[in-house]
Amino acid sequence: MKRKIKVCILASNPFIEAYIKSKFSDDPLVTFAENPLHGIDASVLEQDILTPTEQKILQAIAELGTIEAVSERLNYHRATVKRYLCRIYKKLKVKSSAQATYLAFKLGLIR
Fold this sequence. Notes:
By secondary structure, the chain is mainly alpha-helical. About 50% of the residues lie in helices and about 5% in strands. It is built from five helices and two strands, in the order βαβαααα. It has a two-stranded parallel ribbon. The N and C termini lie far apart (about 35 Å).
């Protein structure tokens, strides 16, 4: 049984993105996901964005992937982690943890 894969192209150049898509367009096992940074406001680059606690939570989300795992590791209640994530999303002007972790990594906010 062959498994389908979903690919997200994070190319800054639209021509590179189009080229990559053209190479895989005939492959029925490959689908393309939307770039997680699509539509992100560049003004987030100008600020000292996240507090140390928010950075710690975002780093843990990037490493562990779930709110439950983060709350266990950091000894926070799940609701506290969710509340911090909402603040992080608002500050970074994103809608998901994937967008937040990718943007924070690109900005050097997390490692």
